Amino acid sequence: LTGGGDRFGRVTVVINGEEGTICNRNWDSREADVICRQLGFSTGEIYAGTYTDVAKGKVWDTHFMCTGYENDLNECVLGGWELATRWSCEMHKDDVGVSCYSNVKLTTLSGRSGSSGAVQLYKNSRWWRVCDDGFDDFTAKKVCEELGFVDGRSICCSAFGVTYTDVIANNTLHCDRDDKSIIGCIKDKPCNSSFYASAVCFSNYSIEENKYNFSLEKKDSGHVKVDHYGITGRICSRDWDDKDALVMCRMSGFSNGIAYQHSESTVLEVIRGPYWLAGLNCTGNETDLMACPHNDRTDLGNCSNSNIASVLCYNGTE
């Protein structure tokens, strides 16, 4: 793999003694699984990020027909290697890339992987959501280090919303100082909370722990967006009322406002992010939502079936 890191990047091959890349004309998640397994990982997916270098050399094309269970691309049915002739292939614009995983990954509800999301553990040849019992910041850091980051923070309570992937019922994930890998962090304890754990990973140690930036979906209305750790998220609608909305609207330059609850299904996942706050209990006199009693990422409570805190702001007494 080139143009990325130890576990992700552009796939390079050597055909007839010439090194080159592969055009992704017939490449899907099954081929990604196989190439990652061939490289010593458990599973993989198509890489959707950018590359850190400029690709050079030949671009090869073939028709892959993998089932996804092979251990080597050579075990798949191939249509024969030939030089790519499509312009986008020739210019390395469609080079195949993969992200490979051994034991853990972070995913959003759509299945996209990245630097934040629900923690998933690879066990018995499938991915499971990790129970949030015992999942703390040190464990999140260990997860993030395994994914190539330097630090991380935990988020409790199924923060990315309802999921249809099973939570491991008979294991939890909690790392101690002497655990050398994530596998050593798996504990034989039942999941009592039924919530899944989430994490956000960082590429450096410059983390602003207490910085929250608030904005609205629209100029004067919509769901409240919360930017924390560089990730845009939301506020759980549990206990969200007009007093909380009034404070948010004043922060946005309005004199008044009322609360409502925004359905999760109407907000694109790519912009809604995790729940960062819950249980807001403003008096209405505060100048900032963070001055109100609230629960943060460590104690969100049950928000997995909640709607998103939203406001309608206005001036005067409309």
UniProtKB/TrEMBL annotation:
Signal peptide: none
Principal place of residence: membrane
Domain SRCR residues, every copy: 1-101, 104-202, 205-314
Keyword Transmembrane helix part of the UniProt annotation: yes
Membrane topology: Single-pass membrane protein
GO cellular component terms, semicolon-separated: membrane
Superkingdom per UniProt: Eukaryota
Cellular compartment(s): Membrane
Keywords: Disulfide bond, Glycoprotein, Membrane, Repeat, Signal, Transmembrane, Transmembrane helix
Disulfide bonds: C66-C76, C175-C185, C282-C292
The keyword ATP-binding is annotated on this UniProt entry: no
Alphabetized SUPFAM superfamilies for the sequence: SRCR-like (SSF56487)
Protein name: SRCR domain-containing protein
